[in-house]
Amino acid sequence: MAGTNRSRKGVGTAGAGPAVVLVAPQMGENIGMVARAMLNCGLLDLRLVAPRDGWPNPAAERAASGALPVIEAARLFPTTEAAVADLHRLYVTTARPREQVKVIVTPRRAGVEIRAAEAAGERVGLLFGPERTGLSNDDIALGDAIVQVPLNPAFASLNLAQAVLLLAYEWYQAGDATPPRELHLGGGRPAEKAQLIGFFERLEGVLQEMGFFHPPEKAPGMRRNLRSLFDRAAPTDQEVRTLHGLLSALLGAKLKRAPGRRGEAE
Q: Whole-angstrom Cα distance, residue 140 to residue 49?
């Protein structure tokens, strides 16, 4: 999805969020797509352990699609141990625990735990293995917990950038305060109650003249139902003005159709 808006303040500062450590990544394009996934979620700390095609890599820059801050800040390490030496906690990604006794968490749980660890002043890393073989047993042994993604058991394979995006996204969501649902007003503002009441009274007056409220004993309930209907719609001030215009247009059309108007043939 296109969604880059360079005029808006983004998230992403050195040292914020978990470090993303790629062990022996095989293709520059994959590193570039990982950088893009990281910046989507405000992560900048990319660490590369012995990339197959060397570093820097022009293919990574092209595939990053504008995520150059991550590429330019990437650090190169000769071993996994060196890349994670300054971290307090490490989450490793593998589909196979390989008979090691490790806590296994989902990406969502990992995101929550990482946020808590960061709040306590800890530095955390996410460790990803080579595209074809995954992490070695020795690399897995460095981890404090294994992250496994609950997916279709018959086809749970993810490419490197997808795996990074999943974990980075869950970390981002664990600290995000965006409302799960909100109304976009398109530059308008919610109508004041006085505006709504004025419209209700006008609408009810027109409907009363038309004989809509019948039988009379049901009129109070019918009025409440109409008001509830428009209240649920939560109209903006502009929409209330539009509703007034609609009533005016309907009333005007009714007058034009009324028999016996001056100037009409009798």
A: 15
Nearest to 45 by CA among 73, 22, 82, 65: 73
Question: What pLDDT digit, counting tens, does each position of 101-158 carry?
Answer: 899 999 999 999 999 999 999 999 999 999 888 999 999 999 999 999 999 989 988 9
- Classify the phi-psi angles of 49: left when phi > 0, otherwise alpha if psi is within -120 to 50, otherwise beta: beta
Q: Is 55 exposed, middle or buried (0-12, 13-18, 19+ CB in 10 A)?
A: middle
What would the two tokens of residue 13 be? 């500062």
Q: Is 42 helix (H, G, I), strand (E, B) or coil?
A: coil
Domain range summary for the chain, segments of one domain joined by +: 19-174, 193-257
pLDDT in the model for residue 119: 96
**Buried/exposed code over 163-173 (b: 16+ C-beta within 10 A; e: otherwise):** bbbbbbbbbbe
Q: Between 3.40.1170.60, 3.40.1280.10, 1.10.10.10, 3.90.1860.10, what CATH number should domain 19-174 receive?
A: 3.40.1280.10
The percent of residues above 70 in pLDDT, for the chain, comes to 90
